[in-house]
Each structure stands twice: as C-alpha cells, then as structure tokens.
Amino acid sequence: MAQQSKNSPRHVKSFRAGAAVAAYRIVKHGADSEHAVHAAAAADASFGVTIPGVSPNLGALAVAEEIIDVATEGIAHVEYGGAVALGAPLTSDAQGRAVTAAAGNRIIGIAQAAGALGEIGAVQIAPGVL
After folding, report:
1. Which domain holds residue 77?
2. Regarding predicted confidence, which is higher, 12 or 104?
3. Cβ of 86: how many Cβ atoms within 10 Å?
4. Higher confidence at residue 55 or residue 12?
C-alpha cells in the first residue's frame, strides 16, 4: 500500500451520483452541476475526489442518484491507476483512477505519496491544465 498523507479536505460538497461512482475516484460533473460521475480521460474537467465514509451511501460504490461527498480542496485519498511518483501531476484514467499526467492534460492535482496500480495514495487537489 502506498504511504498515505492525512486525508484533510478543506472543502467537501455533496452531489448526486450520475451513474455508479466508486470511492477514492476522480470525478467530473455529470448531466448538470448537481451530478458527478467518474472522470474518464485526461481531457476531462475533473474537480474533485470521492470521499468514502462521509456519505452514508459511499462505502465502496454509490449507485445513480445516491448522494455522494466530493473533496474539492485540500488533500484527499485517491486510487492510483498505475505507477505514481511523489510530486507527480495527476490526471484521470478511464475508470477515474489517478495516473501521471502528460503535457496538455487536465489535472486534478499533485501526488502526495508514491504508489502503484490499485493502491490508495493521496493528492493535493489543484485542478488545472499541465
């Protein structure tokens, strides 16, 4: 397991799941500003990471229309979709997992822990474009 930084989101907002949404995943807006779905590409305008345990419906998976909580600022735990180095800019893979970004990608933030595929690491949330 990747060494984790403390999960310390400074801002958490509730959304409705626009489809099935897993814990520790990067999200983007769904059909409207009240819905969130997994980000599915490095070009997606990601804005946060799902927080398990805060919402009663997001233990491991929330289904469409359930309420989920999303960290939009601070440090949040995120599932890695591949090898990640400490300090790497992170974007989303096709399942909303964090992977190292390339030039021109939209990013969710900066890795606060190194890790590998399937591990839970940490990201300092700072959406932007690399």
Report:
1. 8-129
2. 104
3. 15
4. 12
* Paired tokens of 123: 């990201």
- 2 assigned to some structural domain: no
In a domain, 101, yes or no: yes
What number is the average pLDDT over the span 50-58? Answer: 64
**Residue 112, domain CATH:** 2.40.300
Map tokens 């919402």 to a residue: 55
13 bridge partner residues: 70
Q: Does the residue 17 lie in any domain?
A: yes
As for how many domains the chain has, the answer is 1
Give dist(CA 76, CA 6) in Å, integer.
8
Q: Is the confidence at residue 54, as pLDDT, over 90?
A: no
Beta bridge partners of 62: 21
Give the three-state DSSP class for 22: strand
Q: List CB contacts of 63: < 8 A, sequence separation 6 or more.
A: 17, 20, 57
Residue 93 has pLDDT above 80, yes or no: yes
